[in-house]
Amino acid sequence: MRKFLCLLALSLLSCKRDNPELRSKPQIVVTTSILADGVKNIVGDLADVVALMPAGVDPHLYKASVRDLDKLQNADLIIYHGLFLEGKMTEIFEKLRLQKALINAGEGVDENLLIRSGPEAHSVDPHIWFDVKLWAMSMSFVANQIIDWKPAWESQITQNSTKYQEDLRILDQDILSKTKILREANQALITAHDAFAYFGEAYGLEVKGLQGLSTLSEPGLRDLTGLVSFIVEQDIKAVFAEQTISPKAIQAVVAGCESRNHPIKLAGPLYTDSLDAEGTPAGTYIGMVKTNLQMIFNNLSS
Ligand SMILES: [Zn+2]
Q1: pLDDT tens, 107-156?
Q2: What burial letters (b/e) apply to 55-64, b meaning 16+ CB within 10 Å?
Q3: Of 46, 53, 57, which is closest to residue 30 (Cα–Cα)?
Q4: What is 2-168's CATH number?
Q5: Rounded Cα–Cα distance for residues 196 and 209 (Å)
Q6: Cα of 84 to ligand 1 centre, how many Å?
Q7: Do 2-168 and 171-301 have matching folds?
Q8: Binning pLDDT at 50, 70 and 90, where does residue 3 land?
Q9: What is the tens place of the pLDDT at every residue in 163-208?
Q10: Where would you tag: which of 9, 42, 199, 273 has the fewest CB atoms within 10 A of its CB?
């Protein structure tokens, strides 16, 4: 009984806390930690930004909990990546679109710049944040959409967004100069899943992932053998684990290389579909990209 009363008190407290009427600022609910960081850079102190997925969670596989649905229902504005990144939440967003203010950040990227693995809508590669220019494009779209939603915020949002775009421009230049060295060393970036196609396209580095665009697809033996041959032939120095994915599959690549007398480093993890915990070096988008870049550079350049 006592436990029940405690639970009741807790749920009443949380109801009170979640009540949109009692908020001092509008609440923007987003899906991932990456998106939360981008949106925080745009809105600054104007709104509270709440991410549904904690750091380290794989967005391809993420299913909304009852609590998440509650947060979405009570949000003043919802922002999601789109491009089928949140593969198990697509229907929820379709439904919410009819009743809530909602921004699909992926709509900000020019269709012609998207990478596709096939003609179907869901075969689009959602990992646009690894081309900093595409991320900047998407965040500029989000900023404009937020202004449409709250015109009174225009001057503050414009100021924040201009600063963020400048930070992103500097980041992009930094990646271009470091990847140039890797290009010259003939190295390729090999990861657990296909998250870096935009990175490869933007910065001229060959990239290969063991799993497909989504972590939903399982790698087969043929993929593994092909990848091992590629590594041996190209004399690649390291492969990379990812933070949101079990290292088992990529460990099989390392074992395959060893069996062909090509010992290889298993480096990482790279941050792909989530930031690291808040306050850590990879706890912001820019920090995550820099941490990855340094990790890739250190392991492939020497
Ligand atoms: Zn992914």
Answers
A1: 999 999 999 988 888 889 999 999 999 999 999 999 999 999 999 999 99
A2: bebbbbebeb
A3: 53
A4: 3.40.50.1980
A5: 8
A6: 10
A7: yes
A8: low
A9: 999 999 999 999 999 999 888 888 999 998 788 999 999 999 999 8
A10: 9
198 with 114: CB under 8 angstroms?
no
pLDDT of residue 190: 93
How much distance in Å is there from the Cα of 272 to the middle of ligand 1? 6
Question: Where in the chain are the domains?
Answer: 2-168, 171-301
Centre of ligand 1 from the C-alpha of residue 217, in Å: 11
Distance 245 CA to ligand 1 centre (A): 9
Residue 55 three-state SS: coil
Residue 148 parent element (H or E): helix 132-149
The pLDDT of residue 96 is 95
**CATH class held by domain 171-301:** alpha beta
Identify residues whose C-beta is under 5 A from ligand 1, the ion.
195, 273
**Residue type at 223?**
D
Query: What is the 58 CA–ligand 1 centroid distance (Å)?
Result: 7
